[in-house]
Amino acid sequence: MRIALAVPRQSPTPSRSLATILKQVKRAKARAADLIVFPEASLTGLVNNDDPRHDLGLGVTIPGKETDILTAAARREGVWIALGMFEHKDSRLYDTALLIAPSGRIRLKYRRISGGWHGADADTDVYGRGQALPVARTPFGTVVLLVCGDLFDTKLVERTRRLRPDWLIVPMARCFADGSANQGRWDRKERPDYFRQAHRCSVHALLVNSLDRRTDSFGGAWAVSTGVGIAALPLGQAGMVVADINSAGS
């Protein structure tokens, strides 16, 4: 199983972001990747500000125009695509992640359950949280999606562990309070916790973080197998890392 973890520098408009994603999908195919993973809120960045007049406009309908373009790309290139995006549904906004199959079918749609993507006082009638934790059974094993802070929700991690997935995919938009992309701090203090949590959930984990100067999201991507990092993209660097992982279905 060849996976590609893509960290594009976040574009200021959804149309430009989508164009970049399509280019990265084509690049991943050229490198013989079976699956490509993008960050949380890949179309817009995590630029919500708890004002529904602004934030609802960040969301897209699923399925809709944007996902139709993505599913067509998956079908055309013959690759799996995983990414996060804001979803607008019935006057509510969700922090959603998708897994799209090479057939063009959306195999998983997961709405973030933890609430860290919006402020504590955000209107709960607008800012929605998911409840379901779906699983996809694929040729390379069972897959679960989580989003960013979900990985440190104790109850959610236990729910995930009980599902015994082969693969955990985690789109992220993580930053440091000081706005830095401090690789040393990440390696010493943060990365071990992320790897430990991922290992509690699954055999293999793919974590991809947004790179966005507007929100100080510092980028980085990691492929983790049985709790050990096997490939990474450094913080603050746009690009793609490709790795081969023995999968349950191969």
Describe the structure.
- With 250 residues, the protein is α/β, with parallel strands linked by helices.
- It has helices at residues 14-30, 52-55, 65-77, 154-163, 183-201, and strands at residues 2-7, 35-37, 80-89, 92-100, 106-111, 136-138, 141-145, 167-172, 204-209, 211-212, 217-218, 221-225, 228-233, 239-244.
- The chain has one domain (2-244): Carbon-nitrogen hydrolase (Nitrilase/N-carbamoyl-D-aminoacid amidohydrolase), CATH 3.60.110.10.
- It is built from five helices and 14 strands.
- Strands 5-4-3-2-1-14 form a six-stranded mixed sheet.
- Helix 1 runs parallel beside helix 3 (65-77).
- The model has no long low-confidence stretch (mean pLDDT 97).
What structural keywords apply?
alpha/beta; 250 residues; 6-stranded mixed sheet; 14 strands; single chain; 5 helices
User: With helices defined by DSSP (H or I, 4 residues minimum), what is the helix count?
Assistant: 5
> What coarse outline follows from CA principal-axis ratios?
globular
Our estimate of the beta-strand percent is 25-35%
What is the helix/strand order?
EHEHHEEEEEHEHEEEEEE
Strand order of the largest sheet: 5-4-3-2-1-14
The termini sit apart by 7 Å
Largest sheet: 6 strands, mixed
Q: Strand pairing plus helix content: what structural class?
A: alpha/beta
Detail the poorly predicted runs: none
- Helical fraction equals 25-40%
> Which value, in Å, is the CA radius of gyration?
16 Å
Per CATH, what is the topology?
Nitrilase/N-carbamoyl-D-aminoacid amidohydrolase
